[in-house]
UniProtKB/TrEMBL annotation:
Residues in F5/8 type C domain copies: 548-683
SUPFAM superfamilies xref list: Galactose-binding domain-like, Metallo-dependent hydrolases
Protein name listed in UniProt: F5/8 type C domain-containing protein
PROSITE patterns associated with the record: FA58C_3
Keyword Signal tagged: yes
Signal peptide (UniProt feature, chain positions): 1-31
Annotated organism of origin: Streptomyces fungicidicus
Keyword tags: Plasmid, Signal
InterPro entries with a match to the protein in the record: FA58C, Galactose-bd-like_sf, Metal_Hydrolase
Keyword Signal found: yes
Domain of life: Bacteria
Amino acid sequence: MATYRGRRHVAVVSLLLLVLAVALGPTPTAAAGGNWWDPVARPAPDSGIDVTGEPFKGTNAAGEVRGFVDAHNHIMANEAFGGRLICGKAFSAKGIADALKDCPEHYPDGSLAVFDFITNGGDGRHDPVGWPTFKDWPAHDSLTHQQNYYAWIERAWRGGQRVLVNDLVTNGVICSVYFFKDRDCDEMTSIRLQAKLTYDLQAHIDGMYGGPGKGWFRIVTDSAQARDVVAQGKLAVVLGVETSEPFGCKQVLDIAQCDEEDIDAGLDELYALGVRSMFLCHKFDNALCGVRFDEGTLGTAINVGQFLSTGTFWRTERCTGPQHDNPIGLAAAPEAEKRLPAGVAVPSYDEDARCNVRGLTALGEYAVRGMMERNMMLEIDHMSVKATGRVLDLFEAESYPGVLSSHSWMDLNWTERVYGLGGFTAQYMHGSEGFVAEADRTGALRDEYGVGYGYGTDMNGVGGWPAPRGADAPDAVTYPFRSVDGGSVLDRQTTGERTWDLNTDGAAHYGLVPDWIEDIRRTGGQHVVDDLFRGAESYLDTWGASERHRAAVNLAKGAPATASSAEWNPFTSYAPGRAVDGDRGTRWASDWSDDQWLRIDLGATRQVGRVTLDWERAYATSYRVELSADGTDWRTVWSTASGDGGLDTAAFTTSPARHVRVQFLDRGTEWGYSLREVGVHPR
C-alpha cells in the first residue's frame, strides 16, 4: 500500500508540474516571425539572441557536414556536486528570472561563495543578483555560475556550431566535502538526473517551436541521426559522461569497490540513457585507472580529495617515455588541507618523477573492452600516461577508432597515435592567441590525416575561460560581424540589462562562443577557423567508424602452437598453447635465454596482415614476425629493436600464410619471454 500511495502522489505532483509548465512556459511574443529558425513562442521576458539571418543547412559538395563541434561541455553541471556548486539553471519553466539566479548562500554579497575563493583566490565576494542586472556574473573567471543558459547555446548554434557534446558530470568527493548541498552525493544518481534534464531541455525548446521534434536542440544516439540533424541546420547533441567513480568503481586502499558485473550493468544503463562517450577516471584514481594530475593549488586540493576518497595520496614515478603527467607541485591549499585527519599531510614529490604509478587496471581494461563491444567512444583526457598508453595499445590491437581527446588534458605527444587510429581531438577554449598557436603546432598532422579540429569549452566545468584582450587590442572583434559561413550577422549579445562584448568581457558565457571564434579569425587564424569548421565532420567520422567496427577474427585462437621452450612449473602450465587459448589469465613462458621462438599453425592458408602480442612482464626488446606457407621457408614481415612490453601490434602488408612465427632475439628482463595472448588477424 505504501508503494501505491507513493506512486499516486508522484502522479499527482507530475500532473501539477505539467499544468505549471503550460501556464508558466513559453508564450507567444511579437518576435515570432515565421522563419523556420524562429520560435512560434518564447518565454517572456527572456534573453536576446542578437543574430539575424538563416542558419546554414546541408552538406558541402563532397557530402560532408559543415560546422563547429564543441566536444566538451557541461550544460547540467548545476545538478552536480550536490546541486549547489554551480548556481543557476540552463532553463526553467518559470522563466529566466528563476533560471538565472544565484545560490542562496551567496546572498547578500558572496561571502559564503566558498568554492570561488578556494579555486580562484580572493574572498569570493560578488553581487549575487543575476537576472536582470548580471553585474558580476556570468564572467570568464567566475567558476560557480551558470554559463549554459539555453538562449546562449542557441546563439552558438546560430553562429555555426552543429555538434555539442554534453558531458554529464559530477564528483562524489567534492560533493561530500563541499559545505552546501541539497541532495546526496551518489554519482550515478546525479548522472541519471542530468540525462533526464537534457531531454527535458529538448522538450522545452520543442515547445517553443510547436511540438515534439520541431526545435533546434536535438539529442542524437547515432552518427546517422547526427548527420541528418546537421543537414537540417540544427544542433546535434551527444551525451557523454565525465565522473570520478563510474558504476561505483572507486578504490579504497587500492581495493576495488566494484566488479565486472557492476561495469556491465553500468555501461548498459548509460547506453540506454543515450550516452555514447565517457571518461573512465577523472581527478581521483579509481578502480579502473590512474589520473593525470592537476597542478598548483587546485592540484593540492584535489590530492586532498584523493586521500579522503581512496585513503591514499597520488604516487609518482619516473616516466619511461616522452609523455608525462602534470607536475603536482607544492602549492598550499589551506582550506582543503583542513579536511585532512590530524597528523596527515600532503606529501612532497620529486620533480623528476612526473608519472602516476597507477595505469589501467584489469577492471579498467574490462571496461575498455566493454565500451568497444558497445561501440562507444572513450575519452582519454584525465587518464595517466600509463593508462592512456595501454588504452591506445588496446585500440591499435583491435583497429578501434573510438578515441577522443576533447579538452587538452592528454599529453600532446599522443596526438599522432590518436589520429592514426581515426580518433578525434579538440583543444580547450583557450584565449584566441594561445589557441591559434597550439592549433598551428598540430596543423601539419591534421593536414596529413585529412581531419578537422574541435574545441572543448568545458563551460560549467570550473576551469576558467578566455579573458578580455581589451577594446584597444590589435585586431579586436568588431561588431556586428558575419558568421563563418557568411549567412548570419551577429551583434553584441544582450541578456536583461547587460550587454556582453568579448573584447571587454572575455568569454563570459556560451553565447560568446561565436565571438571567440571571430577573435581567432581576426588574430590571424582563418586557417584555424577553417579547420574548426570541418570539426563536426571529423567528429562524426570517428563516431561512425566506431559504430561500424566489428571485432576482428583471431585466426590464432585455439590453433596448435609450438615453441622453442616452455618454463617448467609444478603448479601451473606455461605451455605454448596458453598463448592462444583466448584466456588472458594464462600465459606461455620460455626458458631464460635470448634466442627463442613461438610458432602457430593456422591449419590452412589464410590472409594475414596483423599480429598482436600481449606481454606479461617478461618481454622482448628485439624480435621479428615471420610468415610461411609450408613451415619451412620463412619470410620476415615485421621487426623491432625497441620493444618495451605492454601490448604490441605488428601491422604489415596482408599476405597469404599458414604458419606464423615470432622470433625473439633480445630480452628486456632477466627472465625469458612471456605472452598472455597472441592474436593473428587478416588485417
